[in-house]
Amino acid sequence: MNERPQQIPEVREPLPQVERAPLIAGNWKMNLDHLQAIAFVQKLSWGLKDVGHNYGEVEVAVFPPFTDLRSVQTLLAADKLSLSLGAQDVSPHESGAYTGDVSARMLAKLDVRYVLVGHSERRGGHGESPELVGEKARAAHAAGLVPVICVGETADDLEQHGAAAIPLAQLESALATLPSDAEFVVAYEPVWAIGSGQAATADQAEEVARALRESLRDLRGDDRAAATRILYGGSVSSQNVAGFLRQPNVDGALVGGASLKVDEFTRIVQFRKHVTAG
Ligand code: 13P
User: Fold this and answer.
1) Binding site membership of 255 for ligand 1 (Cβ less than 6 Å)
2) For ligand 1, atom 7: residue with the closest CA
3) What is the mean pLDDT of residues 82-99?
4) Cα 211 to averaged position of ligand 1 atoms, centre (Å)
5) Atom of ligand 1 nearest to the CA of 234
């Protein structure tokens, strides 16, 4: 781990004002087979149609398992649905003898727009190194996909280094191999908040999101820093989503468990309707 001390951003000129359309993304993890996926996406799109959801104002994306992608893509195309499609992982390699891997080009062929890289369940559970995360982001970009770079500290990291140091180091390392003109999304997911029911507070999420954006100014310049969406993830629900989205540097949510419940996810997508709540 490429650690560095927590940075206290210096006072700088404000960034250019750029509208960042919020992104509400559902990471299904290893849930829902392809038949369940079709039923889920149909129900979700009907629910969002019923409430008059404007996808141009708030983008909605689902990240199903690989085996569901073709079915969901077919449904989105046939019914002309404006949901975006994401994948949960990608090979760093273009093609070849990599048993079990799925290439970015294969995903792009299925109209996949986003791909998660560096999720803590892959960094931790599959021993993915910061370098590999960077390689995956690079491969995704090369095929025309937008990598969603996941960063976040464990409870131990939080105690030892504070909240921002590890996410900042992970972001810097992931960007090291990504071309400077590449579009990407950052997802701040404190590992201690994932699946625990213990979300970060909106203030905690904002503090790290702000530090990440300040770091993007150094790494990518002010225009990219102003345009890049930074999501919060970790026990997001319809009860707390509005609080996160009210923060100036939080531009969306990466939702795990609550994205599998169609009514709950529909409420999360409509965070603007309950923006006075929580
Ligand atoms: P939960 O919303 O279940 O905490 O999961 C968050 C997550 O890991 C999304 O990528």
Assistant:
1) yes
2) 256
3) 98
4) 21
5) 4
CATH fold of 23-273, please? TIM Barrel (3.20.20)
First to last CA, the chain: 36
| Whole-number Å distance between alpha carbons of 125 and 120 | 8
The whole-number average pLDDT for the span 110-139 is: 97
Mean pLDDT of 59-66: 98
User: Which contacts qualify for 223-226: CB closer than 8 Å, 24 or more apart?
Assistant: 223/16, 223/18, 225/15, 226/15, 226/16, 226/17, 226/18
Question: Once rounded to an integer, what is the mean pLDDT over residues 170-187?
Answer: 97
Give the other-Cβ count within 10 Å of 66's Cβ.
15
How far apart, in Å, are the Cα atoms of 97 and each of 100, 115, 131, 134, 193? 9, 22, 20, 21, 37
pLDDT band at 277 (very low <50, low <70, confident <90, very high): very low
| Structure tokens that stand for 245 in this block | 């989205």
Q: Whole-model pTM?
A: 0.95
Q: How far is the CA of 47 from the centre of ligand 1 (A)?
A: 22
Query: 189 catalytic, yes or no?
Result: yes
Q: Is the dihedral of CA 167, 169, 174, 179 positive or negative?
A: positive
244-264 tens-digit pLDDT: 999 999 999 999 999 999 999
Average pLDDT of the chain is 95
94 in active site: no
Q: Is 199 in the pocket of ligand 1 (CB under 6 A)?
A: no
Residue 275 has which token pair?
A: 């923006």
Q: Where are the beta strands (DSSP E) in 162-225?
A: 185-188
